[in-house]
Design goal:
Elements (H helix, E strand, L loop, with lengths): L13 E6 L2 E6 L10 H16 L5 E6 L14 H8 L5 H23 L4 E5 L2 E3 L1 H7 L3 E5 L3 E3 L13 H9 L1 H10 L2 E3 H7 L4 E3 L2 H16 L3 H33 L3 H12 L9
Parallel strand pairs: 2-3, 3-4, 4-6, 5-7, 6-9
Antiparallel strand pairs: 1-2, 7-8
Helix pairs in contact: 1-3, 2-3, 3-9, 4-5, 5-6, 5-9
């Protein structure tokens, strides 16, 4: 597929438009609340690979279709990725297979962070778990007043492993990061602005999209090579730390993710009840 055709493709997990040098990428599921299933993880790096190399695109607006940005990882659709490592007495082969799968998920989010075209996220409604991983890979983040966020992984027996822990401390600082990661609590757009996760809060979804588009326009009007250089220089100082964090958490989760607590958390999600964790 040539760069001239990628934006006309019928993407499964995204709505994509390009106009006036700006690409607009909207998550569209197919899971409820734009949950991130296999199609999302397969298409995201390919899509941003095209955006990165297409000279007709100078900036990107990243948002969600419908009222929510994303509910995060689609546990039902992605169950196969977890099944081998959760099996009783999972050995080295199963854990290595899981490690390989996890690194592919990490690489999908990293494709957004490494894109030379600046990415501006416009968040409305819920942005949970994997949704936070994704917006941490953006360059600028805005939210509508109704937006709610959560680093939810701790609530489902997981260590966040595809980018939040690697990138969020550079955005909001270590103290705020630890508080939100260890509690898994929900927090508002106003709190997100207070701690620096988002640059500004708009009245509603229409307004936050307008704000993101306006910033994308300002960026696109600047010299493209200088914009690329700014991203490269700013990313350089933290790229080694991000890479090291991603490798470490992938290895840690491959070794320690399987637990009775994780199985209990997943079962509780399906049964719509509060999990009972026992530290096993």
């Amino acid at each position: 597929m040539t760069d001239q055709a990628w934006n006309d493709r019928d993407w499964t997990a995204f709505d994509v438009t390009v106009a006036d040098d700006i690409a607009e990428v909207a998550l569209k599921g197919p899971g409820k609340g734009n949950a991130m299933g296999p199609d999302f993880w397969r298409e995201l790096p390919e899509l941003f690979g095209h955006i990165d190399t297409d000279p007709a695109v100078l900036a990107v607006v990243l948002t969600g279709t419908g009222p929510h940005f994303s509910y995060g990882l689609d546990l039902v659709a992605m169950g196969g990725t977890l099944s081998s490592v959760l099996a009783d007495n999972a050995k080295a082969a199963a854990r290595t297979e899981f490690l390989d799968s996890l690194r592919k998920l990490q690489a999908a989010i990293t494709a957004v962070a490494d894109c030379r075209k600046p990415v501006i996220a416009a968040v409305s409604g819920w942005c949970i778990g994997g949704g936070v991983d994704l917006i941490c890979a953006a360059d600028v983040r805005y939210a509508s007043a109704d937006a709610k966020f959560s680093i939810r992984e701790v609530k489902v027996g997981m260590v966040a492993d595809v980018g939040t822990f690697a990138r969020l401390p550079f955005i909001i600082g270590d103290g705020h990061m630890r508080e939100l990661a260890l509690t898994g609590r929900d927090f508002s757009a106003a709190h997100a602005e207070k701690i620096g996760l988002v640059n500004a809060v708009a009245d509603d979804q229409e307004a936050v999209l307008a704000q993101a588009r306006a910033t994308a326009r300002e960026i696109a009007d600047n010299p493209p090579l200088v914009v690329h250089g700014i991203k490269a220089v700013l990313d350089h100082t933290r790229s080694a730390a991000v890479h090291d964090s991603l490798r470490y958490v992938a290895a840690w989760n491959s070794a320690f993710l399987p637990s009775e607590d994780l199985q209990e958390a997943i079962t509780a999600v399906f049964e719509k009840r509060k999990p009972e964790f026992k530290g096993r």
